[in-house]
Amino acid sequence: MCDVFISHSSKDDSFVSQLAQELTAAGLKVWADHSTINPGDHIVLKIQEGLRKAKKVIPVLSPHYMESDWCQAEILDTLWNDPLNRFNRIVPVRIAHCEIPNLQRALSYIDCVPNETVGIQQTVDACRGLLPSAHTASSGVYFQKLGKESPFRAGGDFPLGLSGYIWRACDQKLISDFSQYPRIMIFGEQMSGKSSLLIRHEYWSKNSVVGLVKLDEMNDGPCDEFSQRVLEALIEYLSSKGGHYIAKTNVRLIEQILTCHDFTLVIDDYQRLQSVASARNFMNALNSLQKRPHNHCFKIIAASYVEPHVVAQNAGLDHLNFKDWYIINLKPFTTDDILIACRLFPEPISSKIIKHSAAILKQSDKPKVIQEKFEKLWRHCMKVNFETEEKLDDTILRFVDGRELI
User: Fold this and answer.
1) How far apart are CA 39 and CA 57, in angstroms?
2) Closest Cα to residue 33, out of 18, 19, 16, 48?
3) Residues of the chain with CATH 3.40.50.10140
4) Cys staple from 188: which of 73, 77, 192, 320, with CB 3.0 to 4.6 Å?
5) CA end-to-end span of the chain, whole Å?
6) pLDDT attached to residue 368
7) What dotted CATH number matches 171-329?
8) Are 193 and 305 in contact (CB under 8 A)?
């Protein structure tokens, strides 16, 4: 595994050679040219592997870089997994004036144009935190306890902030899916991250109002609780638009919602549809209006650990039409997801965990379980100074095996 992947045009080799030399002198492993590719290796796969495993990616921005299809593919591949650069993995370096595409323009860069020497030193400093020696204190403590709040806050299904969730390798595609389809059903095993995904969608939908309804909090009763929750969300939406409306029936409520272009109804625990009469009535009313030309103005996103057609059968709604719904089968955690999670930790913890990725997934590949494991490790590292590397290694092994952290 390399510490730094330098994405660059071969026409900028002179600068890249100097940068790679300084990074190597600082003790970092650098992927900078095709010398790391052996005869017979698949070039694309090797580059992709280097990008995936690197802890930092340095795009060297220049007119040559912008003209290179290979370079654009490399930076887009990196942004695909972390479009907002939440983990500060991408460290752009500009070496010449050039037109930077909109997708990359939001990332601040190190500017080598005014002073190349200073820019290179700034780049080395930005990557220096990857070194284990950077965490060896003069007091003899091998690793100082973590000072910042945990990004793995395991606060149940619905914590207050997005930082409570691990960004997954599949999330960028899911963002695209959410923007394309008006009816989405998220299907997956329990603790596979369905509720987390709904909340991530709420944060992604900055320009729309999201009405969130949890069926596991409801039971059949004298009041139409489901429609009441939807109505409350609709009133919030209309208030933000300067309007108001009071719906008397499910049909009238849905008719009003159908005209709302940026309203999303999010239904969690959809498998309990059979137990909540008001929700069944709502879906029946919605189904009766499906053929209207404006039925796709508002969106529905639902989550269930039971397959959609089985939910419909159990609820006695066999006529419910799911053929127009886009089904997302949410898969368990993968090695790529573990890599993303590990990058939230500083070195040397990150590298030590990555070595055990397969063992972590063997114990459990359920996102919620893994999130809680990482949360416990982070909390432990906030309390403990590790005097020796052996003590840190013991903690990592306990974390991997699911034993108590001491």
Assistant:
1) 24
2) 16
3) 4-130
4) 192
5) 29
6) 77
7) 3.40.50.300
8) no
